[in-house]
Amino acid sequence: MQAIDKKIGDLSPSPRLASHSLQGTRYLGVLIFFLAMVGCATDHYDARPISIDEVSNKFAVKSLTTGDIRDCAIKRASDSSVDWPPKEWNLKSLTIAAFCSNTDIEAARLKLDTTTAAVTTATQRPNPVLQLPLQKTLNPADGQSPWTLGFALDLPVQTAGKRDLRIAIANVDVMAARLNVASVAWGVRSQLRSLLLMLWFSSERARLLQKQVALDERLERLIERRVANGYTSTLELNLQRHLLAQAITNAVAALQEVGDAKLKIASLVGVRQTALEPIVIDVREFSTHSSLVLDDGVRKNALRNRGDVLSGLVEYEASQAVLQLELVKQYPDLNLGPGYTLDQGARKVGLTFSGLELPLFNRNQGAIAEARARRFEAEMKVKKIVAKAFAEADLAMAAYDASRNKLSSALTQSRLAQRRLAATRAFLLAGEDDQVTLAGMEKNEIESELNLLDATLQMQQAIGQIEDAMQLPTSELSAQ
After folding, report:
1. In which family does this protein belong, per the annotation (predicted)?
2. Which partner from 1, 123, 261, 317 sits 20 to 30 angstroms from 46, CA to CA?
């Protein structure tokens, strides 16, 4: 029996081996915990393959009244008091559609998403680093374990508020990206207004030129009869045929401009031209001759609403934050390393400081000087932008005043031409004139309408300049 007990005792682990086994189990547990932490990733890669055929097919079927544009536009229209879809499309409703479909605006929004994600990066604190040192002594002393086991943490400590400054810089970048979205959106709206204005101008010009063609054709027939009767020479007939050919060329060019304007509008909105065919575009708002009351509010709005002015101020604030960050970088960050080690049976607790930069050769003077210089650059940029905003506002108001004077003169000439035409018709009814003279007076009246159309175009272009100077519709300026 004692032999059996002795045998069992020989088979039992020694206290030293049991201790080694226990320490190895602890080390294995720490390793398993570390691997589990690594495996707990919360985000994974999601593949987004892109196909040119799929992109082109989606673009081919895009409509202003269905799909993503409709869903986005309904939300925006409810905020803008616009019924959707509208029976007649104008600048306001097409602007809403463009905001939902224009690729430049979408790219600016995605840039905003990227800078917003950068805020998350800036707010994150650096993770601690786990160290698991493992060594084996090849010639251990008798009775000692050959293994040195342990673990330690490397804890980064950012000093002097560097993290808060990085967050501030990231937030300023978000503000700049948000202003960029607004600037791009205004640019799209400005281009859309210009294109709709040209659509109105080309349509009205084509209508008047077609009337002129009809009059020149009538004049050609009248002169042909006069030549046949010997009342005039063929020289006058040839001159009239030349005028008719020129009128036809101008009318065809005006119709081509109408088609070009529609094509450009579709491209700007982000759809094919076929998407505009079923809708009615109302451009009558450009035919108005009402006057704007302009005052110093144009200059004030130029400073308050312009994206480049606001972006300049944001960039200056960013330069301030960058300078502050470079200044606090004079104070080094710390890395704390608490740890525990089992060194050949001896248990040791330690605390190390690592990564402590010694400012012996520089105290970040170069980066500080650069940041200070960039702040001066940002300040000068703000001053230049403000001066530019004032200049553009003044130029736009001067252009509007000049266009109003030209429009007033064109209106006067148009009324005189209408009165002369009415008098000629009255004389013709009394038998005191002929059809050639009447047709000539009708052509003169059309010429006065074309001049009035040109003057109205220049006035509307000047209004567009004022709106671009403020980046604000003049309707809102009148409401203030």
Report:
1. Belongs to the outer membrane factor (OMF) (TC 1.B.17) family.
2. 123
